[in-house]
Amino acid sequence: MHRKLVDSLQGMDRETREYLYSALNIHGHVCGGMPMGFAAGLAAMKALGMSGRERNMNTTVVVNAGIGHAAGCFVDGVQFSTGCTFGKGLLKREPKGKWQFVMIQKKDGRAVRVRIREEILESVFTSAFMQQRQQGVDPTDVPPEISHAGFIRILSMKPEDVVHIEGPFTVEIHSPRPCFRRVVCSSCGQSIAENYARLEDGKPVCLDCTAYTA
Q: Residue 193 belongs to what domain range?
């Protein structure tokens, strides 16, 4: 769907290009926010010396974007480039209304704090695309000559020119062991992860069925 647009970008290796292509299709529309997050994720991985995106569960990201402001696309970009996705439990939100995140390596607590440079945010928020959005135009209805321009501009820059990076530094991180066991709720009959079950009269129940409120 967006192959021609992605292929028009210069200086991007094939693997990163394929991730970007998938990201754009999953994200659903062309904008300047998603590529900001995508570039920020690439810069964070480079700063931590990572050879590629997270394929397992060894890196986590804490984003400071909130809810109800123009940052959801940014968060999508971070997920797509780093592999630290919400579904794998590797992306957490601590809302502060900022285009910023901390990436942490679980094995040793090495971390970097990454934020979008102010001049980049200024250019995005004063763009023709943002003017259309402020007028209530859906992203998919913004003319391509407008939406594509912001997308290409961000991704034509070096990732380190899009962001400001602090670190590496070390943080304490406590990662619970993953649970691979399931039980069946004795009340509703649905399967639940064992670590989310409650016992009532010696039988497992799910959180929807438990009589306990605390």
A: 177-213
